[in-house]
Design a protein that fits this description.
This protein is mainly α and 597 residues long. The termini are far apart. β1 and β2 form a beta hairpin. Strands 1-2 form a two-stranded antiparallel sheet. 76% of the residues lie in helices and 1% in strands. The longest helix is centred in the N-terminal third of the chain and has 39 residues. It is elongated.
């Protein structure tokens, strides 16, 4: 039977279905446990052991070491995790990723899960239409699970059969009989293949099919998987390219960990393979290294190789078990050795990638988020929240600068310096709103739970109001410039009343910044304080407006001074409104489950 172009395209489609299934399965799990994962990362990275456990758990849950390491890179970029903590999590992630290989191995030959996929879809698809978001996400996970194994089954159907098409893979046969050189060649193939598909699990699935079809031996399959261990580092490398120095160092640490471990195993490749094969034999009673010998006629064992039908089901199960055992033993041994050298790792990484300037690590427009670090949508929300809290702090500084200008002479050099800084901050504020908003929109394009969509909606409202606060602070400076141009000077009692008003605004602003720092769980007392502050600001504005008319009529100051006075008071009242709008954005989007204030 000829292997046609349509068969090859079908093979590519099968690989695509497998990768899509893995993506949907991973995103479904992330949506079910997104908040929990963020909390786990925040709490469970206090020491090396807890960091390792965290990496294992997170990666086992979301079924993707690439996603978990990209997440770690982004958290380091955000300053939420130190480089040493990140290294421990990455060490654990390499072990956690073997859970996926065991799932694929377990359901590949012993149980043909693809036969039950359609029946499982009958359960999973209706779950998408249930009201509770957890059930919807669980339904997505099951659909991804079905697609993954349907794709795996289709891959095995559409790979060319060597028996029917021996000429197609003649070059592969030439590469398989070069001893240790063959191991190096297939090690390189594993690196390239994993870099292309950006999934070590996909490489494992393809290798599993190749070994079970008799294309390559068990040992060469292990070489591909070992190469895939290095190839999988490409994803965090790409993610870190637009990150800060700390993010780049984290990605480099991941590369070093995988490369050093792989090179050591490659140096003792054949003894290590025999060690894994012995473990496999001890567990299931079949040595996967014997399968190649049976296929080559070096030993007679029809339970492993049938001349009429090729590799038997028992042999395929042994290959699947052995291939899953290989990365497990490799990563476990690598972890047990490397965990004791975490600090040395950090020093080596910092030596390889030194800071070019003393303040380089602070040299980026956004401190906590970066558009290049998007992988797991559910897990990117924390970075945005931290950035918004920083946005609030920067705008708070603008308010202090505006207050300082009120008491300064326009002829003072300090006045011009602060005015220029305030103008620059206002431009930065505009850029921050655009960048944070763009980031949130990109996150919103991913698969998100309804709760996370609500959060993003709330955060978009919040950044808009914070930008309005920045504009209002700069409007104070522009009002003062007009006042100075008209040679107007405020009387001492007028300055006192302006100060009283802006002290209330300052108090409301400090409360707002505090709420933004604890956005996911703001205290009710601070929400109530925000409403009280806004009422105080409004009441004082009304009092000062009435007294202003009386003061002008009684000639305590002239009309022009009263106009600029009221402009500043009016701007302060607007600031109070914008601050309350920020608080309400937090209250309605993050405290929707609690009683409103």
């Amino acid at each position: 039977m000829e292997y046609s172009i349509l068969d090859f395209i079908s093979l590519l489609g099968s690989v695509g279905l497998f990768l899509y299934g893995m993506k949907v399965m991973s995103e479904g799990l992330q949506k079910v446990a997104g908040d929990r994962l963020r909390n786990i990362l925040g709490v469970m990275t206090k020491n090396r052991v807890m960091g390792v456990i965290t990496g294992i758990l997170i990666t086992a849950l979301i079924q993707s070491s690439s996603a978990s390491t990209v997440m770690v890179v982004s958290f380091v970029n955000a300053g939420l995790m130190s480089l040493a903590q990140a290294m421990a999590v990455i060490f654990g992630a390499n072990v956690g990723t073997t859970v996926t290989t065991w799932i694929i191995s377990a359901f590949s030959f012993e149980v043909n899960i693809s036969d039950y996929s359609i029946a499982l879809l009958a359960v999973a698809v209706p779950m998408l239409f249930l009201k509770k978001s957890t059930y919807k996400s669980l339904g997505e996970f099951l659909i991804g699970f079905c697609f993954l194994f349907m794709g795996l089954d289709l891959i095995s159907q559409f790979v060319p059969n060597l028996k029917d098409n021996p000429q197609m893979l003649e070059f592969v046969r030439d590469w398989t009989s070069m001893g240790y050189g063959s191991a190096l060649i297939f090690f390189a193939i594993g690196i390239v293949l994993t870099m292309v598909v950006q999934s070590s699990a996909a490489t494992f699935a393809i290798t599993l099919i190749m070994c079970s079809q008799g294309w390559i031996s068990f040992e060469l399959g292990c070489a591909i998987i070992l190469g895939g261990n290095i190839g999988t580092t490409i994803t965090p490398i790409l993610a870190s390219l637009s990150g800060n120095l700390a993010a780049k160092r984290t990605a480099m640490g991941h590369v070093l960990f995988n490369v050093i471990g792989s090179i050591i195993v490659l140096a003792i490749f054949h003894p290590f393979n025999r060690f894994v094969a012995d473990i496999t034999y001890w567990c299931i009673g079949t040595n996967p290294l014997d399968i190649s010998k049976a296929a080559e006629g070096q030993m007679m064992d029809t339970t492993l190789f049938d001349p009429a039908h090729g590799i038997t089901a028992k042999a395929q199960a042994a290959i699947a078990f052995g291939l899953a055992m290989f990365p497990t033993v490799f990563n476990a041994c690598n972890l047990l050795v490397m965990i004791w050298f975490t600090r040395l790792y950090v020093k080596i990484v910092c030596w390889i990638m030194p800071a070019k300037h003393k303040d380089e690590e602070e040299d980026f427009s956004l401190k906590f988020i970066n558009h290049g670090l998007l992988s797991a949508s559910e897990l990117n929300i924390t970075q945005a929240q931290e950035e918004i809290a920083l946005y609030g702090e920067r705008v708070n500084r603008m308010l202090h600068m505006a207050q300082d200008l009120i008491h300064m002479s326009p002829n003072d050099d300090k006045y011009n310096e602060i005015y220029s800084r305030l103008e620059k901050y206002e431009e930065i504020s505009d850029r921050m709103e655009i960048e944070i908003g763009s980031y949130l929109n990109q996150v919103a394009e991913g698969r998100l739970s309804p709760e996370s969509k609500m959060r993003i909606s709330g955060m978009l409202r919040i950044i808009s109001e914070i930008e309005s606060i920045a504009d209002s602070c700069f409007n104070v400076a522009k009002t003062l410039t007009r006042k100075n141009r008209n040679n107007v000077k405020f009387e001492p009692n007028v300055l006192h009343e302006i100060d009283t008003m802006y002290k209330l605004v300052d108090k409301a602003m400090d409360n707002m910044v505090s709420v933004l720092k604890e956005m996911e769980s703001p205290e009710d007392s601070k929400i109530i304080a925000a409403y009280n502050s806004e009422r105080e600001i409004n009441n004082l504005r009304n009092q000062l407006r009435d007294s202003n008319i009386n003061n002008i009529n009684s000639k305590e100051y002239d009309y022009q001074e009263g106009i600029f006075y009221m402009d500043l008071i009016g701007e302060a009242e607007k600031l109070g409104d914008y601050i309350l709008n920020v608080i309400e954005g937090v209250k309605h989007q993050f405290k929707s489950e609690k009683a409103g204030v």
